[in-house]
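Incident review: delayed structure delivery

Summary: a single-chain prediction request sat in the queue longer than the usual turnaround. Root cause was a stuck worker, restarted by the on-call engineer. No data loss occurred. The affected request and its eventual output are reproduced below so the record is complete for anyone auditing the incident later.

Affected input:
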Amino acid sequence: MKSLLLLAAALVGLSMTAAAVNVTVSTPGNNQQVSSPFTLTANATSQYQIVGWHVYLDGNNVFTAGVTNSITATITASAGNHQIVTRAWDSSGAYGSFTETVMVTSGGGGGGGGGGNGLPTPPPGAIVFNNIDDRSNWSTCHDPSCAGGSGEGTYWMAQDQQNPSRDGTATEFYNSGSWANSLWTQKLGANNNVHNFLWDFWIYVDSESQTYGQALEFDAFQFVNGYNYMMGSQCDYGGGKWDTWNETTGHWIPTSLTCTKFSPNTWHHIQWYMTTNTSAHTYTYVTLVIDGNGHSINYTGHALYNGWGNNLGVQWQLDDNAAGGGYEEWTDKSTLTVW
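Output delivered after worker restart:
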């Protein structure tokens, strides 16, 4: 009897394996740049009849089909990076999925997204730094000399985090300590002849950030011929505003744009467009887009001469309030496009 039961179990296992649904997507390819609307074509196979389809764009159902082995769907999406999940079911109730990422541009050319909500479309030949959060050779700091703050508490970062993540490999930051700040910097190399910066990234914060967060800082910078164009920005939880950075005075300048605390345990999309003028030694915050909502900033700051070597890059910083408890922020799908 035991042998018969084992045989039956093995046959059931084989049956379940055979019932798996295999989904393939022929267009668009993973990480492909497309214009909106774009066409998605997919095919599904199973030993049972395919009876249903869904296509999810960033978790939202944007296409549905019934009994068919292949689909051709027209998908409309805003400019930027998006996750697409294509899923098919068969008559046994089994399903299969295909997950990919696409970068939507307004005209299908150039690089790095843009072209909506006041953001420009990068021209052909723009330099694109993809997946910055996955890069190595980070500079980190918790000391008042470089991050400000008290220097109390602890800090760390952890890469290749799968949960939460948008593309499977997010980077996690942690900071604690009363009035303590922690800074993480990624330098990308000298590019003195670029003056347009389109920075596109996602963040995710935990529930502790609601209690202990003082500010979440996001910076892009360019060092040219000894001048520091520090295009710093922060969501100031304490002041309730988005701030820009004045490098010559070393002070935050509140904008008129309200910044409420980011809701925890969900992804938020941030896009900055900024420019530098290396003849006048100025930098301008042009447009900020938060979760698809565009805001004109148009604040100009002045670069500071400090003699640093030519470079450009981006930074994330976490600031704690007086309570000093630890909280975490994840970032994913960070892209800087310059031209």
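Verification: The helical segments are 2-18, 144-147, 209-212.
Action items: add queue-age alerting; document worker restart procedure.
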